[in-house]
């Protein structure tokens, strides 16, 4: 199809939009409102996903190494040598699902307790050296929180590891919560996307219905289906794109002001920063508006081309 043909179709589309300015304005506003709701829900889903991922990233396995003071049978009531400790750490780091391993000696743990509670520092100083009742500890983060129980069992089975703890019940509740958040967010976005398609399709269909006689006349004088469809498809793309642009602008304006305020009021809440999400959301809305507008126009003409 020639460039001249597309240029003529674009002129016709712009002419039709100008001629039916009220209908075009209503269509654009309808698209804008629908996509605005979709954008708000999408931002909510993105932030819920961020919260879920942040919560999962806090999950870690805490392991206690054997010492002479521990009464587990596998510990033989003796302290591990430095070589044995390093061997355990190396073995854990080599596990395929392990992301990070941190070691905290019992002496460092005692010093942390003294710094955390200076009033008790003098008392805690009496537990230095061989009198230290604490255990050497290892902190392990996994690549996938779903694997935390499996990795914990493998670490527990290692010689020299007295005990592991990862908050089994808490992790189970967390996984159930994050799964519900992800499924709920995805379901809500898909539901709004379906509603957007219906709204846009009905809006374009009304515009086409208002010009059904014009379509019938063009068909009777020998115009091809695609020749008739082209201006309507371009008009639908323009209406969808402009409506999406309005929705994107309002969304960006609101989120840029709202996100920092929420982050300042609730510092521990992991809010997705505007720069990280608004660009992708804007491009997605513009593309969605253009594609849905074109498709809605294309299929809305079908019944009026049967002459």
From TrEMBL:
<feature type="transmembrane region" description="Helical">
    <location>
        <begin position="21"/>
        <end position="46"/>
    </location>
</feature>
<feature type="transmembrane region" description="Helical">
    <location>
        <begin position="183"/>
        <end position="204"/>
    </location>
</feature>
<comment type="function">
    <text>Part of the ABC transporter FtsEX involved in asymmetric cellular division facilitating the initiation of sporulation.</text>
</comment>
<dbReference type="Pfam" id="PF02687">
    <property type="entry name" value="FtsX"/>
</dbReference>
<keyword id="KW-0132">Cell division</keyword>
<keyword id="KW-1003">Cell membrane</keyword>
<keyword id="KW-0812">Transmembrane</keyword>
<keyword id="KW-0131">Cell cycle</keyword>
<protein>
    <recommendedName>
        <fullName>Cell division protein FtsX</fullName>
    </recommendedName>
</protein>
<dbReference type="Pfam" id="PF18075">
    <property type="entry name" value="FtsX_ECD"/>
</dbReference>
<keyword id="KW-1133">Transmembrane helix</keyword>
<feature type="transmembrane region" description="Helical">
    <location>
        <begin position="276"/>
        <end position="301"/>
    </location>
</feature>
<dbReference type="InterPro" id="IPR003838">
    <property type="entry name" value="ABC3_permease_C"/>
</dbReference>
<dbReference type="InterPro" id="IPR058204">
    <property type="entry name" value="FtsX_firmicutes-type"/>
</dbReference>
<feature type="domain" description="FtsX extracellular">
    <location>
        <begin position="59"/>
        <end position="164"/>
    </location>
</feature>
<comment type="similarity">
    <text>Belongs to the ABC-4 integral membrane protein family. FtsX subfamily.</text>
</comment>
<feature type="transmembrane region" description="Helical">
    <location>
        <begin position="237"/>
        <end position="256"/>
    </location>
</feature>
<dbReference type="InterPro" id="IPR004513">
    <property type="entry name" value="FtsX"/>
</dbReference>
<dbReference type="GO" id="GO:0051301">
    <property type="term" value="P:cell division"/>
</dbReference>
<dbReference type="GO" id="GO:0005886">
    <property type="term" value="C:plasma membrane"/>
</dbReference>
<dbReference type="InterPro" id="IPR040690">
    <property type="entry name" value="FtsX_ECD"/>
</dbReference>
<keyword id="KW-0472">Membrane</keyword>
<feature type="domain" description="ABC3 transporter permease C-terminal">
    <location>
        <begin position="188"/>
        <end position="302"/>
    </location>
</feature>
